[in-house]
Amino acid sequence: MNKTVRCLKLDNISNAKLTSAEIAALWIQYSNETASICIHKHMMEHLEDNDIKDAFEYAMSLSTNHIERIKEFLKSEGFPIPIGFTEEDYIRNVPRLYSDVFCLNYLNIMSLHGCHGYSGAITTSTRLDIRNYFTECLTSAAELCNRTKNLLLEKGLYYRPPVVNPPNSASYIDDKSFLTGWLGEKRPLSCIEITDIYFNLKKSIFAKAFIISAYQVTKSNKIKNFLKKAVSKKEDHIKLFFEVLLSENLPSPPIFDAEITDSTVSPFSDKLMMFQVGFLFSTAMVYYGTGWASSIRRDLTAKYMTAMAEDLKIGNDWINIMIKNGWLEEPPMAEDRSKLANTKK
What we know:
66% helix; 10 helices; mainly alpha
């Protein structure tokens, strides 16, 4: 065997230590998977549609397998298994909080987040066995995304993004007015801008509905106050981008608020609901950043900057609540060399 190939093989499989990027990806995934299992259990307890049940059973099998694989990777390197979420965070035998329609959309949107997260993990991981693992995760997330989207289409529940007509020919931008958006006549949105706005709007609409459900069932006044502000901020952002599509005579995604039942009994711990809310806000900032980078019209830049800044403020409040309640798990840290150097022998 070629010496270079042999060294590469040894380094890529399991002889090399896990990098910080690999540990981070595994650690984050463990928290997300254990949270998902708790949420899925409540949804599956009340699902009526057998097709949707099958999709959830597939998702549960994936999460269960992923958790065991992550434990193996971390144990082999001497890392402690994260706390994540357990049976204590899921309350059985309570009234349903979500309709079948909401549950199916939840699973579809979470599969989108999975596709993005796993693709990032593949690109930042080094070891071959870790890359192979996340490639498997990406493949199964894509399968789940396709399954849930097919179900939404079959049941008439999927709202397609706007359609644009083909231009007469391909061409270059030859006028700086393409950038305008503050004053005067605006050019039409490009297909790239429409896509970012539409899917950011879809995720914001879903996030608002989930936050409403958490606000409805939590008993803590402090958390209620935080969630009330979070709902208000999501409403602002929905209006912000809804108006952009409306002004262009383009359709917007539907609202999910009516898919929340009138139950006031929580199926989840406050820790779990707050974790999920934090996840939805943090991913929103990532997607707003992508939309910002892809949008050339200056008025869109300002809208994305506003949304990101306001989500950041909510995020700061979220962190303070999580730390105060002892709900924010500490990720593996680098060694504090200064502290080690000053330790008395």
